[in-house]
Specification:
- The chain is an alpha+beta fold and 895 residues long.
- Helices cover 42% and strands 22% of the residues.
- The protein contains 30 helices and 30 strands.
- The strands form 9 sheets. It has an 8-stranded mixed β-sheet with strand order 5-4-8-2-1-11-14-13, with no helix packed on it.
- Helix 2 crosses helix 12.
- The chain is globular and about 90 Å long.
- It starts with a helix and ends in a 5-residue tail after the last helix.
- 54% of the residues are buried.
- Bound molecules: zinc ion.
Amino acid sequence: MSPALRNLAAGMVATIVLVFSLSGHAAAESTYSFDTTPGKLPKAVIPVHYAIELTPDLKSLGIAGVEVVDIEVREPTTRLVLNAVDITLSAVSIDDEAQAAEIALDAATETATLTFPKMLAAGPHRLRIGFAARINAFARGLFFVDYPTDNGMKRMLASHLEPADARRIFPCWDEPAFKATFALTVTVPRNFLGVGNMPVTREEPVAPDSKRVAFAPTPKMSSYLFVFAAGELERLTAEADGVTVGVVTTAGKREQGRFALDNAVKLLDYYNDYFGVKYPLPKLDLIAVPGGHGGAMENWGGIIFFESRLLFDPSTNADTARRGVFSILAHEMAHLWFGDLVTMGWWDNIWLNEGFASWMQVKAAEHFYPQWQTWLNDNSQKQLAMALDARRTSHPIQQPVADQSEAMATFDGITYSKGQALIRMLENYLGETAFANGIRNYMAAHAYGNTTTADLWQSLESAAGKPVTGIAASFTEQDGVPLIVAETNCDGDTQRMTLRQDRFVIVPAPSSAAGSQAAVLPARSWQVPISVGPLRATQPAEPILLQGSSEIAAGSCGEAVKVNLDDVGYFRTEYGPNSLKALAKSLALMTPSDRLNFVADSWALVQAGRAEPQSYLALIEQISADDHRALWDQVIGTLTWLDRLARDHGERPALQAYARARLRPLFDRLGWDGSGSGDDNATLLRSSLIRALGDLGDEDILAEARRRFAGFLKNPQSLPNALRDSVTHLVGIGADRASYDTLLALARKTTVTNERLRYYYAAASARDATLARTTLALTLTDELPSTIVGGVIYTVGLSGEQPELAWEFVKANFDALAAKQGPSFGDAFIASFMTNFSDEAHAVELAHFAPAQASTGGRVMAARALETIAIAADLKTRALPAIDAWIKARNGGRP
Ligand SMILES: [Zn+2]
């Protein structure tokens, strides 16, 4: 961002906000207040500072702990209520042991109630708690990870606390509004490197083989941002404007953190400027954990990443893998401000964190790597959000959240990707400069504090001088996707376009599984910023704000006029016959973004039952073989999805033959070897075509993949990194016992995380039932990293096409699997796994599977999965026969 922008921010006029908040569409939500923010804990007592001392035992997996918490009693009380789960408390006293407390733990509310014999007066007190906690095998609270090295298996520790698992490590006020400072001291083995939120201030030996490590106190922050990791780790550092940026890896891997480190330094500078508030901690570590949860977590000062998401090793990673590393890094680092410095008051506003970080990651990618065309190439994220948001089980991106299990369920495609799309649309509407100024005002006003969405809208309105709240609230406070119905009509030589709003809905037909109560969903109306205009406009049109319906001038008679130019809007468009005819003739004149938007909407209208599948198929026949990868990704995604839907159906062979015929010419243009394997669209498209064609049964591709894999075994250099995932996957799906054993042997031999995953997932893709059983049995052993057990079982169902076998296995071994996988196995995993099915019998099974229905969040996720199953079942009956008939007619009656 340019320095000129910063000067503008200084001269903001704050009075405009009053004008807009008095007029029109006031949001139901008010700005943040501690006393009214939702949450479960009483607000009579607040923590100010925690001094925490932990002694984790890597063998017994226990944690001995003591904490001294400076608290502020706001109203006299005898009771303190704070969070604790799977923790035993001992020796609780207050004010220098003057009073000992009675302790009552409540597992259901995850609280500890401490009752003191005498009233605690208002004012500061000091609470002392001795406790014992656990090191978990699953990635919640403090967890351990065992990983292979050239010197045998090693064990390390790491933490993951969002949304509500700090309470698994130490008793605390574990809600985001209770911000406090944290000073940590930990005893670890002498050969361990310990990493916390802040720099180490002191290290001293306490026994021949252990040492005590003390960290500087953090700034005021929410408990879910606390972090601790330790192990035989090493660190690579760089200085960035007074901040030490480090990449922390297991021994021997730090050089693979070079790409992330270099980019973190660049991003820190970019964000310092964009947010107008400098990153306030003295250091930032990026910690690569070879296990743990599959993503990354923005702990302040110590972001934890699943190793293969952070490290980049040119000897095994495709060049294109840098895109993923950059994206996740840019996302997590945006949270250091949006989430860490300024935090949502409660989980009902988690979209503020996630929508914003998801938007910022693409903005940063477009800034540093414009050649990646990230908005265009990552379009499937918005498509996914719109698909979920068109359903009955959608939810507003701001929604009430009852408890921690429900908070967990809000980390979904709607929260992330609808939030991302909404922010993009708003930035486009308000203008880049005004929007950035609003963000700066927001950061400055709320640093170290909490907010609601209303606080953000207020800052943006004030900066932009345009109303924001009404537009934004119509997208955040209600669920659903707007449908803009557009049609042109000639008026002499000129034409007019009518724009009308409806609600875009995908609901199963009443006759299909679980859809008996299906009906059209309630009407909605939005204030939608819409960019609309002719295809070859020299200047982008100023977006219009559509409320209800409108009629606009639309060039000369017959001219193609497109809605949602550049695909910036979060809505679907359905064109009337005149508009559709003009646009369908003008596909080649559209920019790739506009063409993709047109094609993706066309498919969505089929899913919604508003168009016949043939209309989409006819449209994609017009896409040229040299069109943009983003277009072909949409086509590949749709055809492979249909192929999965057709599993066990008579239409499948014809559908597969059609899909192969459609995709094969593209691949033949690119070839196996093409022009190297750089970081470009051709490389990515080649890899996804090989995988898709093989999955669709292209015998040439499958045979060549086997041949190349055999070559790779003799000489690894013979197979470019960019092709390894696809080729290994295809070897996996067709594996016989010998090649299956080879894949497992490779997985067991390597210490490189992404290679281990590649081989295990390829083995799990074997379509042979006996091999699938072997894979499933592996998930009960200690061989697989616990992080991937769910993914491996899921893969047996999806790529291995053995969902029934996998489901029977899960049911038979549920307790053993759940014990190792932790609480989310019963809800999140089961719900997601069951979407491998598209029939009523399995919907009924899910509805009656007790573990999936045991928590609030579980019931939410199960209901969504049931709807996914019902929608797939509906489309299967509706679309597969129509597609089959169309393919046969197209082939002149031949199958
Ligand atoms: Zn995030």
